[in-house]
């Protein structure tokens, strides 16, 4: 059976795995990215990780057909343009460096793209060809899978779904671009909105408020939390309805920590989307929660290899 070495590079850790073409994880681990690392240190760490996994594969006579890598950046033909949480990788041709070192096919893409691909390929989404994936956390990232393949726009510089404008009247006073889905519906935006509503109602917000806290208060029917969550649901629905009207996907998959809230989360958004999206475009679309958790990134990196083996 064919196997891939898969890496998911984050700002604090690199998660990596040995994955077969059916999505079974034969080995997985992570290594921290230390704050003092420079470009050479990061590249050296990547090579060490890949060499370690190759040694494991060789010891088990496992065939490796490629190396897939996810990075928090727009990637143009293997070149990392700007890694928001890992600037040490900026302007590095990761694909060329790793391919020259190991002589294997290498594919590099945006981490949110690969999370979406992983969910479609190996998650509970099932065998579908067209999907929109959104990961909702500190910011909002996303992916488009069209006809079973990642779509990235010209030179892979598109599908920045978090920058979809959902409220053109907003000024740039929150995270992300003014009025963007990220600025209005990320967990950061939700926390800021909740604290603002608390203050307006003469409550002193706890400085340790996070998304889980707000959801817990929402489920307890706290009025401020209900208002903040309803705002969140509304802006999520505006963005999703717009994406459905353009792409008519079979599924919209929502990941990130907030997706652990429970089924009510999708139900609230779905109810609003059904009122906003065109009936014809949304008739066959289902909105559901992601299923792979923090494994989605490296599973998507593996899927990237298996999807592109013929073009390596």
Fraction of helical residues: 40-55%
What is the CA-atom radius of gyration, in angstroms? 20 Å
Total domain count: 2
How large is the count of helical segments?
10
Strand content: 15-25%
Please identify, by name, the CATH architecture of the largest domain: 2-Layer Sandwich
The level 1 CATH classification of the largest domain is: Alpha Beta
Structural class: alpha/beta
CATH homolog superfamily of the largest domain: ATPase, nucleotide binding domain
**Could you give the order of the helices and strands?**
EEEHEEEEHEHEEEHHHHEHHEH
Largest sheet: 5 strands, mixed
Strand order, biggest sheet?
Answer: 3-2-1-4-8
CATH topology of the largest domain: Nucleotidyltransferase, domain 5
Quick one: how many beta strands? 13
Average pLDDT, all residues? 91
Stretches where pLDDT falls below 50 for ≥5 residues?
none
Principal-axis shape equals globular
N-end to C-end Cα span: 18 Å
Architecture overview:
The protein folds into 2 domains: 2-119 and 294-311, Nucleotidyltransferase, domain 5; 126-290, Nucleotidyltransferase, domain 5 (2-Layer Sandwich). The radius of gyration is 20 Å and the shape is globular. The two termini are 18 Å apart. Strand 9 and strand 10 (140-146) form a beta hairpin. The longest helix is centred in the last third of the chain and has 25 residues, at 223-247. It has 10 helices and 13 strands. The protein has 312 residues and is α/β, with parallel strands linked by helices. Strands 3-2-1-4-8 form a 5-stranded mixed beta sheet, with helices on both faces. InterPro entries: ATPase_NBD, ROK.
């Amino acid at each position: 059976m064919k196997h891939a070495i898969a890496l998911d590079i984050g700002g604090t850790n690199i998660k990596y795995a040995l994955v077969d073409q059916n999505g079974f994880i034969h080995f997985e681990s992570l290594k921290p990215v230390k704050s003092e690392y420079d470009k050479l240190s990061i590249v050296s760490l990547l090579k060490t990780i890949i060499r370690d996994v190759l040694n494991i594969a060789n010891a088990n006579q496992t065939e490796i057909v490629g190396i897939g890598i996810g990075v928090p950046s727009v990637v143009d033909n293997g070149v990392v343009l700007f890694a928001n949480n890992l600037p040490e990788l900026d302007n590095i041709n990761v694909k060329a460096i790793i391919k020259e070192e190991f002589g294997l096919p290498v594919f590099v893409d945006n981490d949110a793209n690969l999370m979406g691909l992983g969910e479609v390929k190996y998650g509970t989404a099932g065998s579908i060809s067209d999907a929109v994936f959104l990961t909702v956390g500190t910011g909002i990232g996303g992916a488009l899978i069209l006809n079973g393949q990642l779509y990235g726009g010209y030179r892979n510089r598109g599908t920045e779904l978090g920058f979809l404008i959902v409220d053109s009247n907003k000024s740039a006073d929150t995270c992300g671009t003014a009025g963007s889905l990220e600025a209005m519906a990320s967990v950061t935006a939700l926390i800021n909105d909740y604290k603002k509503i608390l203050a307006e109602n003469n409550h002193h917000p706890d400085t340790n408020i996070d998304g889980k806290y707000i959801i817990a208060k929402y489920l307890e029917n706290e009025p401020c939390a209900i208002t903040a969550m309803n705002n969140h649901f509304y802006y999520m629905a505006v963005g999703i309805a717009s994406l459905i009207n353009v792409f008519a996907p079979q599924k919209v998959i929502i990941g990130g920590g907030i997706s652990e809230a429970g089924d009510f989360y999708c139900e609230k958004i779905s109810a609003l989307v059904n009122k906003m999206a065109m009936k014809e475009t949304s008739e066959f679309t289902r909105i559901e929660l992601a299923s792979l958790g923090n494994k989605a990134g490296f599973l998507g990196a593996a899927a990237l290899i298996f999807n592109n083996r013929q073009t390596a």
